Amino acid sequence: MNHETAPKRPANPGVKFPPPLIFVAGLLAAWFLESRVGRFMLIGGDRSTAPIDTAGLVFVAAGVFLILWAMVMFLRARTAILPMRPASRIVDTGPYRISRNPMYTGMSLAYLGAMFLLNWGWALVMFPTVLAALYRFVIKREEAYLAAEFGEEYLSYCRRVRRWI
Question: DSSP letter at 39?
Fold first, then answer.
């Protein structure tokens, strides 16, 4: 194959919007359902919400910590944090030793924490759709880009480290 007909490598993953917006959209859809369709509480009646309030705080704190830790690893590696920009290297340190997507895992934990704190059952119903959209519009594109950009180095990383945890 000559240089002119060789497939062109993408300049970036092709993600069109910041991934946190997918989680925000899920919570907005849950809010709409909670307010327009009907209240769907995780804990209802006159039972205490203290257990899910505590869980919510723990999930949000763990999620934010994981997101920040992952971002620090990207900053130290001097590679793009935003998936609309090209990556300069594969990061496999810190939380990236156990998950290829610790930022998205952190966002998922924060989403679930918000769900607990708000006591919104509809947020739980929306969660699989949020994850499916994240995979379809972000992760799938990132993985294809990283495989094209870094080849065997990325594929080897994929064999060593799971997508989530």
Answer: -
- For residue 111, give the nearest of 51, 165, 66 by alpha carbon: 66
* Interval 19-57: pLDDT, tens: 999 999 999 999 999 999 999 999 988 899 999 999 999
Q: In terms of pTM, does the model score above 0.85?
A: yes
pLDDT for 86-102, tens place per residue?
A: 999 999 999 999 999 99
Domain chopping of the chain, boundaries: 49-160
User: The dihedral of CA 116, 119, 125, 130: what is its sign?
Assistant: negative
- CA distances from residue 95 to 98, 149, 152 in whole angstroms, order as listed: 6, 22, 21
Tokens in use for 14? 């092709």
Residue given tokens 């993408």 in the structure block: 10
